[in-house]
Amino acid sequence: MYNDYNDQNKNEYEYHYSYRSDSSGFQPEQTPVPVTPKKSRRGRAGKIIALVLCGALLIGGGFGAGWYLNNRDGRGETQVMLSDRPLAQVETVSVTGSEVLSFSQVYDANVNSCVSINTSGTASVGYNIFGQPIQREFASAGSGFILTKDGYIATNCHVVEGGSSVKVTLNDGTTYDAQIIGSDADYDIAILKVDPGETELKPVTIGTSGSLKVGEDVSTIGNPLGQLTFSLTHGVVSCLDREINLDGTPFHMIQVDTSINPGNSGGPLFNQYGEVVGIITAKTSTTGNGTAAEGLGFAIPIDDVLSMLKDIMENGQITSHAWMGIAGQSVSYYPESGMRSGVYVAEATENGPAAAAGLQKGDVITMLGTTTISTWSDLTSAMGSKTYKAGDTATVTFVRDGQVMTTELTFGSTTDMPEEEPAPQVDVRQDNGGNNGSYGYGDMEDFFNEFFGSSGRQAG
What's the structural domain count of the chain? Predict the structure, then answer.
């Protein structure tokens, strides 16, 4: 018998029939076809025309439907899928301190309060064979943020240190020449001032770093690599009150895993409310043994330096810095003292805090409070450790004529220092090894290592 089947080719209106004989060769019984009487040619012609038109309509409709379905199914056609989801709109918000913001909102609310900073100048990179300093030009880039409408800007000291020209650029491309009002290397902070004329700048909102918690979202807007201006990076607080040592000065930092690169230094660290809670200052890229490190960034807690930033704005310097009133060197430069460690008092400033406490030339300081003093850098680190401020009192342990003695010393302010007083940060007397104690760099690599240390610290 005949078997027939229909094939629905994805089109409910098109069917294809086929037939085949089975293996036995059986032929079905033929049914006589009735003969229809012939009609007139005119009626026959009309039917032919009608059939042709119907066929054309069916073929055209079938082709159109088939093309539409094939196109919709992607067979034989290249398709681009377009989303019909409405585009998200970032709502412009104000930082109120009471509403958690998305990272997009933090950026939108603060990008016009952030600046990129470009510094140029000359620096001493060593000495020639005649003992004369070698000066070389340098250029560096960093970040900052606006504190006041009239143009006071906060950044890092190392971003502008030694600069003879500082330019500040806003998000809209406006560039101002900036004046360095004051800076402090111990806290790595600086204040710049630009003159916006009649234009009011948009300041940030200052928060409190004391409210941060580990795991909290944070972000920064900065100028990574000095080229990728106004970039947002974000992460979480990794640790609070992390004690690290940068160039001999101990800092208690906010540790974050936010991406920080050279050029981010001086930029603001925002909390999830869009408030400034820190100042980006450094990243660690390697450990002491050279092992690569990622995701280790640090920011100065804003609570530690806010009063100092205001102090610099008003006085051009930090007036609360403790002043001891001595000129000295590591005792290793004075073998005649008979001491192996400590700081030799070369001079006690007249009417200064040390002289008032009874210290005099030839004394060897061995302890300040509970901190052991072995070298001059130990003493400057203890003074710069933020433990002591002007007006604080500490016990000084010293050796005089072989006898251990103590005295109570009340620190003065660095603003009370006489202009002619030497401020020896570097030992200048010949030691037993023949080193004159000066900073003589053979090349820029040595300069970089001396300035940033060998611990892998980089300018943020």
Answer: 2
Task: Give the structural domain span for 347.
Answer: 322-429
Mean pLDDT of the chain: 76
User: Rounded distance, CA 388 to CA 429, Å?
Assistant: 28
Q: Which of 116, 158, 184, 330 is catalytic?
A: 158
Question: Is residue 88 in a domain?
Answer: no
Q: Are residues 312 and 347 in the same domain?
A: no
Q: With the CA atoms of 60, 62, 67 and 70 taken in that order, what torsion angle do they form, in degrees rounded to the nearest 10?
A: -170
188 is catalytic: yes
Check whether 368 has a pLDDT greater than 80.
Answer: yes
| Residue-wise DSSP of 49-63 | HHHHHHHHHHHHHHH
What CATH number is attached to the domain comprising 423? 2.30.42.10
341 is catalytic: no
- Residues 130-184: pLDDT tens digits? 888 888 888 888 999 999 999 999 999 999 988 889 999 999 999 999 999 999 8
Is the domain of 226 the same as that of 270?
yes
Main-chain phi, psi angles of 189, to 5 degrees: -130, 155
| Active-site hit among 184, 188, 304, 427 | 188
**CATH number of the structural domain spanning residue 308:** 2.40.10.120
CA nearest to 294, candidates 251, 240, 238 = 238
**For residue 62, pLDDT beyond 90:** no
CA distance 30 to 21: 15
Does 16 have pLDDT greater than 60?
no
> What is the model's pLDDT at position 300?
92
Asked about 304 being catalytic, the answer comes back as no
- Cite the DSSP H helix spans in 261-387: 302-315, 353-356, 376-383
